[in-house]
Amino acid sequence: MTEQQAVRTNLNIAYIGGGSRGWAWGLMSDLASEPTMSGIVKLYDINQQAAEDNAAIGNSIYDRDEVKGKWKYEAVPSLEQALQDADFIIISILPGSFAEMYSDVHLPEEYGIYQSVGDTVGPGGHVRALRTIPIYAELAEHIKQHAPHAWVINFTNPMTLCVRTLYEVFPGIKAIGCCHEVFGTQKLLAQMLKEMKGIEDVQHRTEINVNVMGINHFTWIDKASYKGIDLLPLYAEFADKYYREGYEEHHYGPWHENVFRSAHRIHFDLFKKFGVIAAAGDRHLAEFMPGYWYLKDRETIARWKFSITPVDLRIEKGEKLFQQSKRLVTGEEAFNLKKTGEETIAIMKALLGIKEFVTNVNIPNQGQLGNVKHGAVVETNAYLSLNSVRPVMAGELPSQVNSMVNRHVYNQETILRAALTKDRELGFAAFANDPLVTIAPEQAKDLYNKMLDNTKKYAPYG
Amino acid sequence: MTEQQAVRTNLNIAYIGGGSRGWAWGLMSDLASEPTMSGIVKLYDINQQAAEDNAAIGNSIYDRDEVKGKWKYEAVPSLEQALQDADFIIISILPGSFAEMYSDVHLPEEYGIYQSVGDTVGPGGHVRALRTIPIYAELAEHIKQHAPHAWVINFTNPMTLCVRTLYEVFPGIKAIGCCHEVFGTQKLLAQMLKEMKGIEDVQHRTEINVNVMGINHFTWIDKASYKGIDLLPLYAEFADKYYREGYEEHHYGPWHENVFRSAHRIHFDLFKKFGVIAAAGDRHLAEFMPGYWYLKDRETIARWKFSITPVDLRIEKGEKLFQQSKRLVTGEEAFNLKKTGEETIAIMKALLGIKEFVTNVNIPNQGQLGNVKHGAVVETNAYLSLNSVRPVMAGELPSQVNSMVNRHVYNQETILRAALTKDRELGFAAFANDPLVTIAPEQAKDLYNKMLDNTKKYAPYG
Amino acid sequence: MTEQQAVRTNLNIAYIGGGSRGWAWGLMSDLASEPTMSGIVKLYDINQQAAEDNAAIGNSIYDRDEVKGKWKYEAVPSLEQALQDADFIIISILPGSFAEMYSDVHLPEEYGIYQSVGDTVGPGGHVRALRTIPIYAELAEHIKQHAPHAWVINFTNPMTLCVRTLYEVFPGIKAIGCCHEVFGTQKLLAQMLKEMKGIEDVQHRTEINVNVMGINHFTWIDKASYKGIDLLPLYAEFADKYYREGYEEHHYGPWHENVFRSAHRIHFDLFKKFGVIAAAGDRHLAEFMPGYWYLKDRETIARWKFSITPVDLRIEKGEKLFQQSKRLVTGEEAFNLKKTGEETIAIMKALLGIKEFVTNVNIPNQGQLGNVKHGAVVETNAYLSLNSVRPVMAGELPSQVNSMVNRHVYNQETILRAALTKDRELGFAAFANDPLVTIAPEQAKDLYNKMLDNTKKYAPYG
Amino acid sequence: MTEQQAVRTNLNIAYIGGGSRGWAWGLMSDLASEPTMSGIVKLYDINQQAAEDNAAIGNSIYDRDEVKGKWKYEAVPSLEQALQDADFIIISILPGSFAEMYSDVHLPEEYGIYQSVGDTVGPGGHVRALRTIPIYAELAEHIKQHAPHAWVINFTNPMTLCVRTLYEVFPGIKAIGCCHEVFGTQKLLAQMLKEMKGIEDVQHRTEINVNVMGINHFTWIDKASYKGIDLLPLYAEFADKYYREGYEEHHYGPWHENVFRSAHRIHFDLFKKFGVIAAAGDRHLAEFMPGYWYLKDRETIARWKFSITPVDLRIEKGEKLFQQSKRLVTGEEAFNLKKTGEETIAIMKALLGIKEFVTNVNIPNQGQLGNVKHGAVVETNAYLSLNSVRPVMAGELPSQVNSMVNRHVYNQETILRAALTKDRELGFAAFANDPLVTIAPEQAKDLYNKMLDNTKKYAPYG
């Protein structure tokens, strides 16, 4: 017997939201590049045509020479069929449509509340959660029934509440939430090493070692190192140097030409205020702080050098992907194999016992994050091995940060209960306490009601 | 041997802040009314003349017939002398003078930040804490050295941080913090029984049973009963009935004629929002919520029918007490024996093993309040017996309230560390995160600096 | 409205094991003596005739003048009928018959294992638990279905595992376990006050204040006081004085004439070894320690001056009660009203909100007992009020005692799982680790198998 | 800048017990084989000549070609000098001499108590701890004063109490305890793969992935895998196959020819009883169980196929090493470079940030081991990176094992307190509760006193 035993064939992946464009194609590329695993991917989507198109695209590359991981793709008409015999369940869905997203992000602007992303916290994140939780509650029930031993990997936002709902409804579930926001901060640290020390070609994921602590999109790093170099003192210098003007990753072009980017001024400001490195993009971070800090009005936002991501632009991008999808199905355009930088494959390999590793994941707190409620979903490092995800003890956030993190942790617990019990008033208690909702409760109630109306197709309340 | 053994003579009380007017006289009255204890009270005050005046006043009643508890009063010139051989240490001081208090309460108004009390949280509470913590750190050191086995009963605000500092500096201390704010809510419940059920003469402390949970001035009641009647449903009706107009305790006169009172509209609003009874006065409660809720501006305050307590009025009141003090010393005015309704005597009796009882106290969390950091000072019921204060497990606040409570818990931890390490920047992290500080961090920094300047005599920072 | 509201009529008590003789009659006496409550008691027993006899006996006193609490008694043929509309459920049953008890207690003697009681731990307690757990699991299911809001008061042994099973099967249950063993130690302390200080007529339950910590029949007291007197130093003297000869409560007659009594030598020895007061009878305490300490052989037992309670004697006593029962039903003998000293009535009054109080109860650990697993059933003080049992934080046992307590805590957890999953091997892991099982595992297995055979009617295992 | 930065020169190692023979030479070999680190090793030993001999031996290899890691060795006359500027402190001492060890191991045999090793638990481990704790308390004080930021790596037994003492005395210490017993079980699993599956050349440390849980020498594995193969079911078969006859690792020769080995019958028996893999050698495991299980008498020991390691043999071995030492110093014998298989080097590299890894270590419990007291020193996996040791959450031992583990955890806490406060009676409470002390307390006291007398040079008690 030899090395070969560390190979798994006949694997079964259920992909919920399998009609997604872009994201699904990335997964196909990643699977194709990995020689140790093969099997079938069952694509399930409420838009079945999209799932079928993706199956066609996925199968089109099977015979290519450069494809090392051989996977068959099949669009299935029901969740049950997708889940049947699954080893892994990947969930990446859009809860609701762009219409609801538009309301989430832009309606609050009428009340003076600006949101840069609107999918995690703030009024938009809140209402998106109310829409998503019932879907995830149903998913959890199905997984319990049809695939209780499968590993579930979630990519949908709001990440924390998606994973939290899965565990609430099916406590025995084996689910983790994965997000690349921390990677972005590791990239920034790699850039810093080049900028400040002239060190080139740092591999940000494998060579920048970080201790991650917090909740998704509001994670913090209190220890970071690169080959024995402590990066915290260097970051302090880096933050000082670029605090006023911001830092541009020049290879991306100017930050203001890309609504997903920023000049990291919030990164630097938070470090100077709190002494630990905020580990998500500025656009996400801004939404976790009181509204009058970074998102007071358009001038403030411009001054802090980050963008509001308009939903129009997402719609436009979606349309382009749809057109591309048609070309890929017909063969008019060849599928471009290209690794995404996501870690889905590495995670699967670890859970299969092929190669253990340590990475950051979103799972319920068992004590890995000190002074945060047990059971709340937190993001820290974990050690992944055969059929096992064991958190690494991350320690405790400094009190000045924990105050803000726990505010959200308990708001999220409230939102969860409100969504599961359809208690509109309870939901409002969390809404009014959100840091972006910097208006009197009476006005906040008015906004809340309008937003709920706009999402009632997905989350009908009282 | 008989009942007599449940009597303690030769007790030794150290009274820190023993020159206080009004409050000290209340204690004298209460001690005089209790037959089971006697001994000496050593008065220590930085204003030694005031302590001496109080000693004279206290001793003047010794021989009166109606005095059942015989106590000698002695003004001592040093803390050490006060603490020597103490069985109990009572602390009730004014940290700083009215000048600092004026800045605490009124300077933030220039930035649009209104405070109804300004001694617990908000900019005023914060800066008052920075002034108080060093004093309490020193007290703790002295107690450790001179009276490590004495029971310390604190009445000074900010209560939470006073008690927290004592335990931080001397973890072996036996200290509790006592506050009558919960009594006020029990009174309101007694009034409610009269109003809604026609039940008269309810003894609010002994007959209204409540489960107390939270931090001082921000406590909550999730269970309340009177002789088997569950008071929560009744309170729901009561809140509905008086929500719009407010409720007036008629025997006190109209609320707006007394800057320490309110029409309980915030009580009712919080109940309707959160489903549990807020157990402090409206003036205190308002300061724990985001500034744009109840304290946005003078119109909002008036609409919610409570008052800002102006420091001018405190100064005026202080002057009147000073004049009265002179008359009491000379005998021009006779000392009026009158029980205060405070529980100091009952607490002493319980700790002496004379009579056990359950009451609400402020002590470090050992688990009595769920999902609040261990070690943080919380207010719940406790069972007091011989030389022992054992918390009663209070359970957990609902998440919608816990979100707000923990925001303050961690702010207070930050303030503590900032004060003990004299870290001005760290202190600002808590300041900027205070719910009343609803302005951009840059402005907040400006306000913070001015306020620190105004208190620098007591708390010199960087 | 007046005091009268603190009265509850039309109460509904389900009495499971309602055919018991002796114990049921005591409850009837206690109920009859209490003026604030009245209603109906539904007696359910697998021996229905016994329940009917007890109903007749209970109803026979209804019209007596000295009866202040008016209760009707009704024998019901099914558990469902007993539970219907119950406010309280009292459980006091004999799991199995005297035949099984005989095997529990005396069969291990063939292997050199002696047991003084055999109903809690040791081989006898273990096998009794295996018999009892399935019964309690079924009870819990019925209570969940028919009376989920009723308060359950358990008196059956093994107490810990009875209460633990109820919560395991129905986590939402409101159950407490009550036991008078601690009362016995309080009586001993009262005797001590007379003996050592000449203080007469001490009320052991209301005047001897104790902090209770541990698991049922293996509880400890680290603080005890009487009217301000610390009883620990006095107990040290008392133990020294009577260590060698033992202490006889003379009003009971010589200890060796009563197989339920002892000369307290184990009480004194444990105090001298561990520094805290063991708060159960010597017969119970001996069984929690390694077998070679107090129960090595009959000589050792005699030297420690306590008895093994033979089951023959229990059978004989049972027969006498049966004859008395017949006389009480026919009226040949008049029912003798006499308070038992148990606290059932006081507990009911507290839970009805009539009169709050602090007493020791057996409930799952929420942190009231430090360094014992959360969820394990522990015995500490609790504060009982309207519909609420809140543990008082008891602190932590000294490590030298906690080592022994936790050994049993985890054994009990193992027994619970073994019984619920019918896993004979798992059960043996706990059996072999019991401190009384001081024989090689191979022999222990032999004994275990024989004992299980003897109880298979009630607990059939693989 | 390049790879080179992951190299550390000028490191400073303090080696306490640096005169040790054998163990020190192994470290020299390991250091010499590692190219990324170099510096100085300061050898401190109460036997200074031995330290000087070792310095000479260590320096003798400096110029050899095959030596990749260049280290200078210096014998220093005081602890202070050793600790000055230390980056790492390695502790490997013999507490007391062979005379004390002889008493520890063999004196209890006079009372019918047999010990296979006698250095961890049992009477021998207990008394060895009493001797060791004062030494470690003093070490901790010195480290606090002279090298508070150094990493301390302990190899001395009793491991748990050594590390526990360091943290008790200097809570800020950065210490870990390292032991190779788990490696042995991984080797057994590698052998199993060959035996049962024909898989050769398995790297036991890097390829056998295990989840470690417990306390040193009493650790357990509930998950084990090799390249995706779950090893637990295979171990069940393996245990069944070899349960009766035992398993011989043939390359070692027959077990009974080596007093450090066994035929793994206890390994198999514990697995069959408890369902998890015991992860230490049989000789250690036997001592944690009740004495009447495996160590009842010499016949029982022989039947279970393991050995008592006689101290005579250790003395003999020591003498041989002393002679070898002389030859190495004079150059009569050449130093043989040979890797030990210990992980000291890998641990140092990880703590320097050169290469992160996951390994099992002994550190205070922060929650990594469920339902074991926080602060107790436990052995689980941890993730080691730059200046950081973060436990991996190991989960919870099954209750049937936790009962035994916690018995020792609290005994160890008692021993610690007894040793630090020199409380002979308190120490006896733990002694009498040790599972090997299966005699009546009176006899146990006699043995305890004799053993303490024999060690009084190192641990003088009242």
From TrEMBL, chains A, B, C, D:
InterPro entries: GH4_Enzyme_sf (IPR053715), Glyco_hydro_4 (IPR001088), Glyco_hydro_4_C (IPR022616), Lactate_DH/Glyco_Ohase_4_C (IPR015955), NAD(P)-bd_dom_sf (IPR036291)
Lineage: superkingdom: Bacteria
Protein keywords: Carbohydrate metabolism, Cobalt, Glycosidase, Hydrolase, Iron, Manganese, Metal-binding, NAD, Nickel
Cofactor, how bound (note): Binds 1 NAD(+) per subunit.
GO biological process: carbohydrate metabolic process
Span of domain Glycosyl hydrolase family 4 C-terminal: 212-437
One MF term in the entry's GO annotations: hydrolase activity, hydrolyzing O-glycosyl compounds
Keyword Protein transport on entry: no
Pfam families: Glyco_hydro_4, Glyco_hydro_4C
Protein residues bound to Mn(2+): 179, 217
Residues involved in substrate binding: 157
Site feature Increases basicity of active site Tyr, where: 119
Keyword Nucleus: no
Entry cofactors: NAD(+); Mn(2+)
PANTHER family referenced in this protein's UniProt entry, alphabetically: 6-PHOSPHO-BETA-GLUCOSIDASE-RELATED, ALPHA-GALACTURONIDASE
Family per similarity comment: Belongs to the glycosyl hydrolase 4 family.
Name of this protein: Glycosyl hydrolase family 4 C-terminal domain-containing protein
Organism: Paenibacillus agaridevorans
